[in-house]
């Protein structure tokens, strides 16, 4: 190897390993610099240690970015989901298993480590090198080359791929310093915020419900406009709320200060109105307790100021409306979020209009490529964030040739 490496990748996470593989497959001599002592720490903790590697279906509405839908579509077209699945199954020997209920794909081994090891081994087999405990603290472009400061080492590269991730769960190595390096190379950074994050409440009625999990319909709403609708599980926690419904909705709440409205019953207001007419002798408790856990039913009745044994047919119109509103249109009292320390991904980041969408090469510094969470794209719960990391990394890696 010459003293100037052809392609250096900063970060050995999901995106960095994949970018390294495709740069090596494109014929580049690749060195990956990783600040921690091992690769893919986030892969290891993902999906509760099982790694929800990919979704089984994907659509543009599964991703959020400040950039246009067309930009996102164009990028995902470069590596369709079925081909990414085939890459794992047939090229790096990670058989996948579909979790029917959720549509998520996991490695058949149900262990994250097989994914991390498969990517790492593929990179090493292609002649790539990973240098651990190598935190890049500065990058300059000198002449045509990148000069990277890395502790006492100085490393030069012809091409540079930044795959430094975001700022969430910083003890995995993604401490946000990559944004600073990118800034020094001419990039901006859309404000970062915790996304896919549990939310907090100070409404004691709800914190008393910790441990309850149920499927709900939710909508994020701002100024009367629905921003997104969903139907998945909500978990009451010690601090407030979590579970896929909350994580998926959270970026609207954190970034856009939207309201989060819950239908705990999955039965529409109209249907409830009809049920009250059809079965007037039923008690308020009886109508709810078939549908939601008893502790939640009790809390909802308390909130609606309806007595346990009130017969729904006898409720005055105003009270009936209030009752239906509480069970179908409950505005969760959100007091905050659990922050970047626990958020699964970081929103914001480098805008896509600062990269060439055909190559992911920077428009600010030639020879620099960006991929993964550092860019302004996030996906919903379900394997969509790894899918983004892999698609963007392959394109960046292959484009170094
Ligand atoms: C608890 C948890 C569970 C998750 N589960 C899932 C899941 O099941 N499915 C899913 O799709 N997504 C999941 N995610 C999200 C997913 O992990 C990320 O979207 C993905 O890891 C982003 O990949 P990346 O390579 O861009 O960044 P990262 O994985 O964050 O990798 C960045 C790498 O760069 C290194 N680095 C950073 N700065 C420097 C520097 N200056 N010098 C050298 N190295 C540096 C870091 O140490 C790190 O290794 C989860 C996230 C968390 C936190």
Structure description:
It contains 13 helices and 21 strands. With 401 residues, it is α+β, with helices and mostly antiparallel strands. Strands 1, 2, 7, 8, 9, 10 and 20 form a 7-stranded mixed β-sheet that branches. Strands 17-16-13-14-15-12-18 form a 7-stranded antiparallel β-sheet. A hairpin with a 2-residue loop joins strand 13 (213-222) and strand 14. Flavin-adenine dinucleotide binds at residues 10-16, 33-36, 41-42, 45-47, 51-52, 135-136, 163-165, 168-169, 173-174, 177-178, 344-345, 372-373, 383-386, 389.
How are the secondary structure elements laid out?
Blueprint: E1 4-10, H1 14-25, E2 30-33, H2 41-45, E3 54-55, E4 63-64, H3 69-77, H4 81-91, E5 96-99, E6 104-107, H5 112-125, E7 129-131, E8 138-142, E9 145-150, E10 153-162, H6 177-184, E11 190-195, E12 199-200, H7 204-207, E13 213-222, E14 225-236, E15 240-242, H8 244-256, E16 259-263, H9 269-278, H10 284-289, H11 294-304, H12 317-328, E17 330-331, E18 336-337, E19 345-349, E20 368-370, E21 378-379, H13 384-398
Parallel strand pairs: 1-2, 1-10, 2-7, 10-20
Antiparallel strand pairs: 3-6, 4-21, 5-6, 8-9, 9-10, 11-19, 12-15, 12-18, 13-14, 13-16, 14-15, 16-17
Helix pairs in contact: 1-5, 1-13, 11-12
Flavin-adenine dinucleotide is lined by residues 10-16, 33-36, 41-42, 45-47, 51-52, 135-136, 163-165, 168-169, 173-174, 177-178, 344-345, 372-373, 383-386, 389.
């Amino acid at each position: 190897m010459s003293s100037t490496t052809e392609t250096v990748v900063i970060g050995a996470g999901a995106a960095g390993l994949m970018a390294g593989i495709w740069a090596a497959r494109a014929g580049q001599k690749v060195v990956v610099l990783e600040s921690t002592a091992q690769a893919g720490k986030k892969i290891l903790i993902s999906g509760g240690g099982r790694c929800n590697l990919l979704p089984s279906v994907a659509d543009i509405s599964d991703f959020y970015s400040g950039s246009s839908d067309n930009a996102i579509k164009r990028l995902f077209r470069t590596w369709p989901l079925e081909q990414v699945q085939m890459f794992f199954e047939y090229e790096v020997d990670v058989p996948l298993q579909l979790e029917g209920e959720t549509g998520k794909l996991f490695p058949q081994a149900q262990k994250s480590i097989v994914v991390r090891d498969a990517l790492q081994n593929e990179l090493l087999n292609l002649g790539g090198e990973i240098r651990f405990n190598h935190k890049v603290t500065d990058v300059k472009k000198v002449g045509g080359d990148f000069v990277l400061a890395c502790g006492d080492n100085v490393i030069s590269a012809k091409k540079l791929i930044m795959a430094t991730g975001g700022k969430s769960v910083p003890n995995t190595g993604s401490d946000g310093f990559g944004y600073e390096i990118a800034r020094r190379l001419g990039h901006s950074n859309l404000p970062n915020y915790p996304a896919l994050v549990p939310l907090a409440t100070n409404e004691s009625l709800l914190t008393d419900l910790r441990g309850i999990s149920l499927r709900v319909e939710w909508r994020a709403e701002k100024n009367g406009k629905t921003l997104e609708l969903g139907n998945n599980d909500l978990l009451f926690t010690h601090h407030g709320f979590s579970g896929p419904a909350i994580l998926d909705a959270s970026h609207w709440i954190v970034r856009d200060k939207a309201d989060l409205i819950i239908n705990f019953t999955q039965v529409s207001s109209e249907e409830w109105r009809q049920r009250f007419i059809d079965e007037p002798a039923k008690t308020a408790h009886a109508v709810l307790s078939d549908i939601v856990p008893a502790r939640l039913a009790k809390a909802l009745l308390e909130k609606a100021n309806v007595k346990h044994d009130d017969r729904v047919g006898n409720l005055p119109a105003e009270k009936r409306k209030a009752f239906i509103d509480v069970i179908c249109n409950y505005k969760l009292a959100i007091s905050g979020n659990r922050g970047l320390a626990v958020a699964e991904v970081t929103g914001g980041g480098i805008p896509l209009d600062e990269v060439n969408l055909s190559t992911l090469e920077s428009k600010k510094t030639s020879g620099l490529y960006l991929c993964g969470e550092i860019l302004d794209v996030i996906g919903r719960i379900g394997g969509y964030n790894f899918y983004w990391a892999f698609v963007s990394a392959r394109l960046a890696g292959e484009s170094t040739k």
